[in-house]
Amino acid sequence: MSRIRTLFLGTPEFAAKILSALVTDEHLEIVGVVTQPDKPRGRHLKVLPSPVKERANILNLPCVTPEKIRSQHDWHLIQQFSAELAIVVAYGQILPEDFLKLFHYGIVNIHGSLLPKWRGAAPIQRSLEAGEKVTGVTLQKISPELDAGDIIGYRTLNVTDDMDALDVLKALEPLSIDLLTVDLIDYVRGNLAPIPQDHSQATYAPKITKEECLIDWNLPAPVIHNKIRAFVLGPGAYSTLGNHRLKILKSKLPEPHYPMPSALANLPPGTLLEKNRQIWVTCASGSFLELVTVLPENRSPQKAYDWWQGLHQKNFSFVTSVQGTKT
Length: 327
Description:
The radius of gyration is 23 Å and the shape is elongated. Residues about 320-325 have low confidence and may be disordered. The chain is an alpha/beta fold and about 325 residues long. The chain starts with a strand and ends in an 18-residue tail after the last helix. A seven-stranded mixed sheet has the order 5-2-1-6-7-8-9. Strands 10, 11, 12, 13, 14 and 15 form a six-stranded antiparallel sheet that branches. Helix 1 packs parallel to helix 5 and helix 4 (about 125-130) packs antiparallel against helix 6 (about 220-230). It has seven helices and 15 strands.
């Protein structure tokens, strides 16, 4: 059978990797790419193309970058591709309802959760923040209601306590490619019928705000650890020492039967202590957490112990709550 003329919509590196895989698939012909406009990125805020645009240029694929897919002009540009199917992978825009009708086979979307759980902008982060042990990726038909379309297929992923959002995102990449090269083709060829979601089981994953990224050390260590590993995908969990902000990129929970070091006993939450080249922080209910990797202001990521060694004094405590009360 002939290859399916396909439009690809995506923006970040995760989407770019999937685009590269789809270009080589014998069932799909990627006839065009849609991505977000060039934007300032990096520490120096240099205006750069999205990873998907960079990849499209390397692959010699035509690429358009509309500010919003709402005008007839933008639609005309896209319709010139004569695509029968559209695939969305982390594009970053909500598509108008009428736009969904432009493709014979419709528009499908890769979503980073097991729908109907965690509909919304931050499914990977919110599932890790909640401490879930199983997550996955869903291939769904896009519908006017956010992430409520019928399910074409899904793949599951077991999550361990030491996996962060970047680890999960990387693990979901081959699973997403498998969905798009197996289940999607079965659907388009009429061999697989989509399944409606049970909307009564829906949970939501709203965009992460900067305010909630400030760590409250009055919470138990597992809750804080889950926030740190979830938010490393962006914008990052942080705490403050004096007037300086410190992002916590990686933390580690003690082994279940590992006793609290005696030096930490009865210390208030947010207290830092070095023991055997490990940096510990006290949390609520007698719990504690190891800092593994940190990002000081205007610096590069570094091991927590190296950061600790560079401090001029070692009697700091973190600000413990969002209200700004010091220990």
